[in-house]
Every structure is written in C-alpha cells, then in structure tokens.
C-alpha cells in the first residue's frame, strides 16, 4: 500500500494520511470487477443541474433548509471542545466547519446518489487534521468478506489499490436497490423531462432569432420595357448596395431614406409567422420536476395558484424530506464527532441536535410569539385571581 503523505504543520513536522485520492496515471483504471460509486450518468446529472437552473436552485434550497446542528455531551468540557472542533475543522483545504462539510456531502449525495469522504489523521494517528470530500469517480466499491461489508478502492500510481484503513472512510448511498451498494440520484428520472424542457427553450430562442431579429427581403421586379430589363442586374446591385448602406447607417443611429425607381417590394422575413404557445408544455415539465424534488413551487419562484391549505401540505411534505436527509447525515456526523472525542481522550457518546425546520415567514413567527405571550399573560392573571379568591 502506498500512502500519499502531505505536511500539515511546519512546527511538529507531522504528515497527514489521505487514502481517498490517488493520482490517475493508468488509462485502464475502470475494471469490471469493481463497481464505481458514480455510474456513467454522473456527468449527465451535472449537465441537468447546469442546463435547468430551477433544478440547481431546488437542490441548493434543500441543502440550506436542512439546517444547522449542534452536539450535546454529558461532559460539558468534552462538549465545548467538540463544538470548537466542529467550527474550525479543515474541510478539503478550502472550507472550515462541520456544517460546511455536511452541506457539500449532502450536495454530492443528492446529485450523484452517493457521497464519500474521509477523516484525515496526522502521521501519528493522534488527531484529526481535516475532513476530505472525495471525487466519486476516484473511488470504487466492492463486496468485502461478507455481504455486510464493503471494501473501497482508489486509483493509485500502480493501478487500483485497496484502502486498508476503511474505518476512516465516510460513505452514504441514497436509496440503494436491494443487493447493490451504490445509491440513486434524485435526478435519476429527470433526463427525459429535462430533455423536452431544453428542446422547448431552444426552439423559443430560435424563434426569437428568426422573428425578433428582423430580416428583410428586398425584391426588384423589372417592367416590360426592354431597356429596363437590360439594366435589371445593374439596378439590382445598386439597390442592394444602397439598402446595405442604409441598414448599416441605421445600426450606427443614423436615419437614411431608401429611394428606388421601378417596382421594388420590401417585406419582413417571418413577419407572418406566429410564436408557438409554450406555457402549457413548460408547466407540465416543471410539474414533473417539482413532484420529483418534493419542493413547494412557491419556493422556486413559480407563481402557481394554490390555496393556503395546499401550501401547508406541500410544506409538510418538504419537512419530511429534510428530516430524511438529516437521518442520512446523522451517522456520518456522529462518527466524526466520536472519532474526535476518542482521540482527545474522552469516552463520551455524543448526541446531535438539529435546528428546528421552519418555512414560516417572519410575520407569522412574530404572530406566534405574540399569541404565546398573550396566553401566558392570561394564565398569570387567572392564577392571580385564584390566589386572591382563596385568601
């Protein structure tokens, strides 16, 4: 096994151990006996998010709405150190904090159906120096000694190498099929829908280019006079030249008149065509996307008519989705916290507390606080009245 080492602290001269990344030098790194964490449609899912902004926005909103979290321990000193660690831990060298890691981890999980990371230890294996979020294309997975274990492989200089210390690997699969170790992306059933949607948008752009960007057809019809017919080519060239100069002057903001002799007709190309109505098919495709992502339309800026009761039901459905994603993230975050506490000499079993999911606006929240305060005031008055009556 070839470890990839990297200096992290010039004072202690310690080296980190990073197993989930290797240099890709072997062009034949994909082997049939290994199952890649991300199937060939990985780039397809990236293209879907890039080509359809509403899908990209929906995923980002779900990640942000998943919310923050904190750790709780019986030993308050251990809890304080763990909280400090969760705020300052290095994430892939470009970020900081466990919440940052959880957001990136959930982003990969939703987009690709799989997310893989690693707890990076120093050379002495005595402390955590960072968390690394691996590229799903670099990691392969295979059944271990029994169906309840899996082994991880990465592409190294000498070919595919097995990750020996897999206890430091963090892996989550989203809705895996029975008998499989990899998950499925939430975008899995959307390629067909997004393909139709992009075709509609492309045709809209082409129609605007044909109709909106006006083009002219200038036609010169010579009369029956033999002299006029004889000079028809020269006149046609002269008309074309003058028309071209007039259009160029118009582009520069100058107004020039076009004067011609003979039968000359000018028509706008495409003026008789009509734009195809796309509201209905676009909405049908967007409805499929919204149904798949389980996010209320009003969160995506879609002003569809809906009742207050329906909006509340859509919000409740979204909350259940977010709670499901939290359940997937909780074991990963607890493993990181537990590893940090053990390396720091604490035997505490940490617990994670998620922030309350709320989609209410500030006005509704203020009303709820007002009603609560009024209810408490009424209860205090009733209690005071009972005491006075008793005396």
Task: Provide the descriptors you would attach to this structure in a database record.
single chain; 391 residues; alpha+beta; five-stranded antiparallel beta sheet; four-stranded antiparallel beta sheet
Describe the structure.
The structure is a single chain. The protein has 391 residues and is of the alpha+beta class. It folds into three domains: 4-189 and 318-359, no CATH class; 215-269; 365-391. The protein is built from ten helices and 15 strands. The chain has helices at residues 42-51, 53-65, 76-88, 98-112, 191-212, 226-230, 232-251, 279-293, 308-343, 362-390; strands at 4-9, 14-18, 35-36, 69-72, 90-91, 95-96, 114-122, 128-133, 139-143, 150-156, 159-162, 169-173, 215-221, 263-269, 351-354. Strands 1, 2, 7, 8 and 12 form a five-stranded antiparallel beta sheet that branches. The N and C termini lie far apart (84 Å).
């Amino acid at each position: 096994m070839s470890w990839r080492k990297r200096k992290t602290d010039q004072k202690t001269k310690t080296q980190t151990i990073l197993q989930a990344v290797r240099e890709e030098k072997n062009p034949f790194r994909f082997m049939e006996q290994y199952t890649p964490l991300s199937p060939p449609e990985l780039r397809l899912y990236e293209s879907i998010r890039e080509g359809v902004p509403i899908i990209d926005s929906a995923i980002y909103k779900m990640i942000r709405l998943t919310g923050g979290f904190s750790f709780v321990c019986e030993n308050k000193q251990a809890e304080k150190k763990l909280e400090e660690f969760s705020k300052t831990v290095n994430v892939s060298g470009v970020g900081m904090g466990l919440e940052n890691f959880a957001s990136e981890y959930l982003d990969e999980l939703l987009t690709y159906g799989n997310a893989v990371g690693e707890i990076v230890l120093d050379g002495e294996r005595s402390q955590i120096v960072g968390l690394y979020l691996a590229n799903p294309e670099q990691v392969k997975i295979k059944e271990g000694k029994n169906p309840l274990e899996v082994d991880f492989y990465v592409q190294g200089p000498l070919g595919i190498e097995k990750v020996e210390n897999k206890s430091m690997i963090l892996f989550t699969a989203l809705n895996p099929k029975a008998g499989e170790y990899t998950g499925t992306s939430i975008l899995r059933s959307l390629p067909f829908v997004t393909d139709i949607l992009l075709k509609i948008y492309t045709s809209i752009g082409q129609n605007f280019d044909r109709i909106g960007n006006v083009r002219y057809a200038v036609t010169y019809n010579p009369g029956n006079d033999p002299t006029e017919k004889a000079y028809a080519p020269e006149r046609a060239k002269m008309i074309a030249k003058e028309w071209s100069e007039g259009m160029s002057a118009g582009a520069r903001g100058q107004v020039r008149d076009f004067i011609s002799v003979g039968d000359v007709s000018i028509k706008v190309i495409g003026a008789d065509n009509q734009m195809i109505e796309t509201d209905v098919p676009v909405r049908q495709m967007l409805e499929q996307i919204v149904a798949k992502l389980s996010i209320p339309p009003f969160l995506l800026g879609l002003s569809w008519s809906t009742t207050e009761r329906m909006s509340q039901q859509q919000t409740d459905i979204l909350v259940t989705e977010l709670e499901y994603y939290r359940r997937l993230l909780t074991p990963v975050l607890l493993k990181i916290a537990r590893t940090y506490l053990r390396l720091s000499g604490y035997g505490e079993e940490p617990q994670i507390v998620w922030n309350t999911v709320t989609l209410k606006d500030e006005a509704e929240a203020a009303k709820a606080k007002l009603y609560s305060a009024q209810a408490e005031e009424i209860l205090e008055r009733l209690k005071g009245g009972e005491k006075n009556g008793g005396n």
